[in-house]
Amino acid sequence: MSERPTVAVVSATAHSGRRLLPRLCELGYRTVALVRRPADLPADEVIDDWMESPRARAALEAADFIVPLAGDLRARGRAGYEAVHVRTTQIVADALRRGRARRAVYLSYVGAGEGSPNLYNRTKAIAERLLRESGKETVVLRCPAILGGPADPGPLEQAFFARGGRATMLGDGRQRQRPLYRGDAVEAIVAALRGGAPGVYELVGPEEMTADELARLVNRGAPVRITHVPAWAARLLGHLHPALSPAMVDVMLADATGDPTRAVAEFGLKLTPLSRVWKPE
Questions:
Q1: Which CATH number applies to 6-277: 3.30.70.360, 3.40.50.720, 3.60.20.10, 3.10.20.30?
Q2: pTM above 0.90?
């Protein structure tokens, strides 16, 4: 391994990627950010058009570690989910097989399963398998929704923000959630790069709440009236609304919980309650 080990971060413009890159720099890693379109990122090297670029393939094969972050809950249809999860991961798996990297750390989803009828969950699980079959060490962290803080909210948090004192929720709002703080996801990736046993781990937040409670949390104590879209209507919208997809709607209507005990013990993690991150002003 080189004196300054290199981490290739795939789809580094993701919210977790933008936070991971400076953290890796702090810890002395050399970083290569692989992206689809040109982006200003805090990395030693940024390579765009990464899926077609020979330079990107060479960078993947030369890296000491690879962190694939490609994912899109809003993809449409089997072809869309396979393109964003399976095709991208196959490129990474091929590079792992040929290259010098000894470990990949992959962010998956708590509902992942190849037998799942949900295209998002199914293709996430296929991606996990492709990485394992590369023959290199693979750490899979199955996470629920990953949330930033008030200063760096992602699209999920923003979707819950009340506008005119109102927020809209798909379903009855009683879905059980254990959302994960983005800073904890980053620290888990870093810890998994440094050591710990390969395998599949659930990594969820320390607090369980309903979807309605999550919406109230991110509004930080401001009065909010929640309008609920019945499940049947939400599923219809999944076929009609351009910002939704059927798989996305089904994920949002389902519980997203798990047990982080193994991950916490294996990687020495300390999980952050979101109630502390999003405490009222």
A1: 3.40.50.720
A2: yes
